[in-house]
Amino acid sequence: PISSIHRMDVNLYNLEGKLVHSSEKDIFEKGIISPIMPSLAYRALTNSNLSEFFMENERVGQLPFKASYVPLKNNGAILGYLGLPYYDKQRELNSKVPSFMSTLINAYVFLLMLATGVAFRVAKSITQPLVQLGDTLKDVRLDGTNKPLEWHSRDELGALINEYNAMIKELEKSANALAQNEREGAWREMAKQVAHEIKNPLTPMRLSIQYLGMAYKSNPDNIKEVLERVTSTMLGQIDNLTQIANEFSNFAKMPRAQNRTFILNDLIGNVFNLFKDGDGQSMKMTINLPNDKYVVFADPNQLVSVFNNLLKNGIQAIPDGREGDIRVSLYEENEMICVKVSDNGIGIPEDKKEKVFVPNFTTKSSGTGLGLAISKNIVESVNGEIYFNTKVDVGTDFHVKLPIVRTGELEEAV
Questions:
Q1: Which of 90, 239, 293, 306 could cross-link to 375 by cystine, CB 3.0-4.6 Å?
Q2: SS (H, E, C) the chain
Q3: Cα–Cα distance, 2 to 250 (Å, whole number)
């Protein structure tokens, strides 16, 4: 009862110092502690008549513990001795250490997980706007159609986003100014080119009229011959002006294409025969058409103008004193139908190759320089390709590639 009430171990010894009873019998029965009262405590209580003896250095193996011994008396006579060891408290303390460490580790793990979660949320709140800003920067366009970002906090990131919003506003202004300058520059160049081309036929027209006036005054009776010659000159120059106006009009706004399927072989043959019987009469002109018929989907009238321009350029590239040799061939290459127009003219110099398809560029003494630019637009509008190979003073090959429409694709193309 004493052990239960006071929650401590109790050992009871007789007058000889032998253990009579203990609240922890196991440690005595297993021989961990001697069943005899320590001699030092026994002599102190027996011979010195002490009322209490305290020992601090008793041990259970390597475990030290404290113990207190007191005599049990009845009317002054000693009936026995009571030992009060304190090793259970030490053992309890040692048993609580792992539990405490486990609790401490769990607390640290919980705090670490909590800190990780908080850090993740804080990092996400910081990086998410940066990711959004990065995605927005990827889509920045130079045409000024950029949307500003919204950020309501006045922090470092907010300052960065404010700078970005200010930048896209300035970019929009710069894009508008650049577009305006490009439009104005294009119109100035176009106006300069038109004025230059118009001046060329106006000069002979003025001279012809002046000559006609002088001839009428000096010899009115023979004015008929002069009038016919001047009329012919005037009509030729008027046709030249008309061609200039038409080319600039076509370049500014190409007529709406009336695409349809047709056999390219027949169109090439008709264009070739027109030049062979006309301007190319004094030249050697050959054509090579395959037996297979190739169908394309395009505007035939626009393609006629393309091949007219290529044949005309080839003829005009022949220098004086050289017999012209114009060759036209039609063949299939990589699922495309290719038309090659070759000449043995002066070729295109290296420094002018990149400008061949640029508007207003021409190697001839007259013309607007828009023919090949218009041809390039026509061919590329039907998913085709136009390019050239040239060698100075040997000749030039122009290639026009168009997609072939197979028999099963006719209805879909139409």
A1: 306
A2: CHHHHHCCCCEEECCCCEEEEECCHHHHHCCCCCCECCHHHHHHHHCCCCCCEEEEEEEECCEEEEEEEEEEEECCEEEEEEEEECHHHHHHHHHHHHHHHHHHHHHHHHHHHHHHHHHHHHHHHHHHHHHHHHHHHHCCCCCCCCCCCCCCCCCHHHHHHHHHHHHHHHHHHHHHHHHHHHHHHHHHHHHHHHHHHHHHHHHHHHHHHHHHHHHHHHCHHHHHHHHHHHHHHHHHHHHHHHHHHHHHHHHHCCCCCCCEEEEHHHHHHHHHHHHHCCHHHHCEEEEECCCCCCEEEECHHHHHHHHHHHHHHHHHCCCCCCCCEEEEEEEEECCEEEEEEEECCCCCCHHHHHHCCCCCCCCCCCCCCCHHHHHHHHHHHCCCEEEEEEECCCEEEEEEEEECCCHHHHHHHC
A3: 120
Tokens of 85: 């060891």
**Number of CB atoms found within 10 A of residue 193's CB:** 17
Four-point Cα dihedral 296, 301, 303, 304, nearest 10: 120
Nearest-angstrom CA–CA distance, 57 and 84: 14
Instruction: Decide: 338 and 401 in contact? Cβ < 8 Å.
Output: yes
Nearest to 33 by CA among 67, 2, 59: 59
Is residue 403 packed enough to be buried (19+ CB in 10 Å), middle (13-18) or exposed (0-12)?
middle
CA dihedral 132, 133, 138, 141 (to 10 degrees): 120
177-188 confidence digits (pLDDT tens): 777 777 666 666
Q: What is the CA radius of gyration of the chain?
A: 56
What are the tens digits of pLDDT across the range 31-82? 666 777 888 888 887 877 777 887 777 766 566 677 788 888 877 787 888 7
| pTM for this predicted structure | 0.45
**Cα 298 to Cα 263, 343, 379, distances in angstroms:** 10, 26, 9
> 352: buried, middle or exposed (CB in 10 Å: 19+, 13-18, 0-12)?
middle
Distance CA 65, CA 38 (A): 14
Two structure tokens written together for 41? 């405590």
More confident residue, 359 or 309: 309
Q: CA-CA distance, 20 to 72, in Å (whole number)?
A: 13
Q: Mention every residue, 6+ apart, whose C-beta is less than 8 A from residue 178.
A: none
